[in-house]
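Golgi apparatus membrane protein TVP23, pasting as requested.
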Amino acid sequence: MSNIDRQTLLSDAAPMAGSQFQSFQPMDMESQQPEPQPSILKQSSHPIALVFHFVFRIGALVVYLLANFFTSSFVFTFVIAMLLLACDFWTVKNVTGRLLVGLRWWNEVQEDGTNVWVFESRDQTRVPNAVDSRMFWYSLYATPVVWFFLALIAIIRFNFQWLLIVGVAVVLNGANLVGYMKCDKDAKQKWSGLASGAFGGNSGILGMLGGNLIGRMFSRG
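Structure tokens follow.
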């Protein structure tokens, strides 16, 4: 058989199974991978407020823990730590609490010298961002605990001068924690009172309509 006849037979033959694998298209694995979850700041409704909610309190902890590596002056460390703690207290009390969870508290001194707690809360229909609320409350509970353990360490090491910083930190963070706990409790009581009042009002209307209907059914004429 000539070479021309062999080439004709090969060209007319059906393609082998191996040729089918050459046309196989690989699966797009990237399209099947789950999309990465957005960061906390992207999920937050107030990312700037969330950042400042942590900046000053973390800064105070960093100064307290690492100041000895940069300066031997306790007075300088004390002043910087006090400024950071004061900024943190004011920011959490007046700004981040209102923006992140819709709560605000303060204390007023009456003419007779007594202290009165005053609370503000968001509208019941305004639901706070879940990420903002979670980060706010977690940090509010965790920070006093951290400072408390640092106080124990200072006592064990007999670093009593550092207890001045820790004591101020515990007092300021504890005041914000107690204030917001009371404010949150007051807000829940207000909302439950509004809900029960609305339900009671509707029940009264329904009861009045039902009583009139039953009275008509059993009346003469």
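Note for the archive: The radius of gyration is 34 Å.
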